[in-house]
Amino acid sequence: MSRLWGEKTYREVATRMSGRLVAILPLGAIEAHGPHLPLTTDSVIAGAMAEEAARRLDGRGLEALVLPTLHYSAAPFAREFPGTISVRPDTVATMIRDIGWSLSQQVVCLALANAHLDPAHLGSLHSAAEELGELGVTVAFPDLTLKPWALRLTDEFKSGACHAGQYETSVILAERPDLVRGAIRRTLAANPISLGKAIREGKKTFREAGGPDAYFGAPARATPGEGRDTVSELGAILEDAVLQSLAESD
Questions:
Q1: What gap in Å lies between CA 184 and CA 179, rounded to an integer?
Q2: Is 74 exposed, middle or buried (0-12, 13-18, 19+ CB in 10 A)?
Q3: pLDDT tops 90 at residue 23
Q4: What is the CATH number for 24?
Q5: C-alpha to C-alpha distance for 211 and 219, rounded to whole angstroms
Q6: Whole-structure pTM over 0.90, yes or no?
Q7: How many domains does the chain contain in total?
Q8: Which of 176, 155, 177 minimizes the C-alpha distance to 166?
Q9: How far, in Å, CA of 71 to CA of 69, rounded?
């Protein structure tokens, strides 16, 4: 049975509300991801994370449905590359806050399945989650750039050299292999520069950070098996965050 909110009728959602319903919002972006991955890479990863978490939460005595993905977000780091669409951070925060408030009488928790790690975007999510919390809405948002969540992901992810590299490319190979430009991917040399470190040093774009082709890491080393393992762990992270948020709100 589909776990997608948008495929349900209003009566089917109402039936799910008789239990403890969790709404999961996948958050991505439209931005450059190297010459080998699609602009919607983050959305694909977020959607996979959300569906895995929904499956896991269903086994925890909760009802879980995945909301339609929010593709548009702040993406200033990729602004120099064609195809990137970036909106203002306050627009993103307002949208998430409004979605959460609209759902406040329908669900016990809004879970943010986020795969876009631009600092401007992350700031929007933290701002929205804080505002919703002040309004009494339970929000689960595991920021993958912070402990303990970051420590549960791959070595490349933890190195910070992980934009369109082995980590993200592996997930797309597992979830949407048709979207990977394989011939190009296999020719790409590893770029070991830590995007995380570059951000801390004050760099503002991928090119400034040392990514002239909008990728960091080793896309040529990606495998579908690693991607499947990563999706499983991402789902487990969101599951744990939801359970933690619900426990704190009880």
A1: 12
A2: buried
A3: yes
A4: 3.40.50.10310
A5: 13
A6: yes
A7: 1
A8: 155
A9: 6
